[in-house]
Design brief:
This protein is of the alpha+beta class and about 300 residues long. Strand 4 and strand 5 form a beta hairpin.
């Protein structure tokens, strides 16, 4: 199976992001997850082989898992179902693409935090709050919250997203949609985290995106993947410090260790870092889905 870092299809380009290429086909979108990897707002020089397939298949697993209770944008991930003569582009599409409904995306990152880590931990250390929510004293890094926190942010086209209060979210998109999206976000996180824990994975935090088809709110983008979430191995969990992970934190940690200023061209990833990162995505995929990769 070849590594896919860019795609070239006879379709109108809808958007090409750091990791994903999106094309328009009729009233639908074709979403392709490449093997590119980004960190600190930079696309790195080296791809992670099969990363796009692992991410797509984890998302597909969760979309299927929730399909009876939460509608999503998925139409099919089978290349044979795609419109036009796209079968000849199977090398670029197999395992890493989905045909999806073209929804009007709601411009909110719906972040759910079950554990205190990352930027939330830094904020708590500073003033005892996370995204404006006052928390009890005495929490340690990586502690589990009594109840998950819903901490939305605005989606930025470039740079970092901006944390907002739930009240501000209601102002931006309306009370009814805000309440519904918060309810769905917490439901997906709680159910997903419970399932993952049975597979030996702690989902520390995650983010969701939603869109609207007419008046219906649907789940879009990706769901509970190592790129949209912090995945920790449950057997190594130890509050009071940062945790080892199945996500790209491993790559971030390597880049930080090089002394890179995070503003200039990023350093190259050594072969062993690429391989170890691939193994982390593979293990997350295999634990969550219970399957071995069959796309060859």
């Amino acid at each position: 199976m070849s590594v896919v870092t860019k795609t070239d299809l006879p379709l109108k380009v809808f958007k090409k992001g750091k990791v994903r290429d999106v094309y328009e086909t009729n009233d639908e979108l074709l979403l392709i997850v490449t093997d590119r990897i980004s960190a600190f707002d930079f696309v790195l020089h080296e791809p992670i082989p099969k990363k796009g397939i692992y991410l797509t298949q984890i998302s597909k697993f969760w979309f299927d898992h929730f399909k009876d209770t939460i509608p999503s944008h998925v139409i099919s991930d089978n290349v044979s179902d795609f419109p036009g003569d796209l079968n000849k582009y199977k090398d670029q599409l197999s395992g890493r693409s989905m045909l999806v409904k073209k929804a009007k995306v709601i411009p909110i990152e719906c972040i759910v935090r079950g554990y205190i880590s990352g930027s939330a931990w830094k904020s708590y250390q500073k003033d005892g709050t996370v995204c404006g929510i006052k928390l009890p004293g005495g929490l340690k890094e990586s502690d589990k919250f009594d109840e998950p926190l819903f901490t939305p942010s605005t989606k930025a086209e470039s740079g970092h997203d901006i944390n907002i209060s739930f009240e501000k979210m209601k102002e931006l998109i309306g009370d009814e949609d805000a309440e519904k999206i918060k309810e769905l976000s917490l439901k997906i996180y709680k159910e997903g985290a419970k399932y993952a824990s049975e597979k030996g994975i702690i989902i520390a935090d995650t983010k969701f995106e939603f869109g609207k088809l007419g008046d219906q709110i649907i789940l879009v983008d990706e769901v509970l993947t190592p790129d949209s979430s912090r995945f920790w191995p449950a057997d190594l969990y130890e509050p009071g410090k940062s945790q080892p992970s199945f996500d790209k934190q491993y790559v971030r940690d390597y880049l930080s260790s090089t002394g890179w200023d995070k503003n200039s061209d990023p350093p190259h990833l050594p072969d062993d870092v690429v391989l170890e990162t691939q193994k982390k995505y593979q293990e997350a995929y295999e634990r969550i889905t219970g399957k071995k990769l069959i796309f060859e």
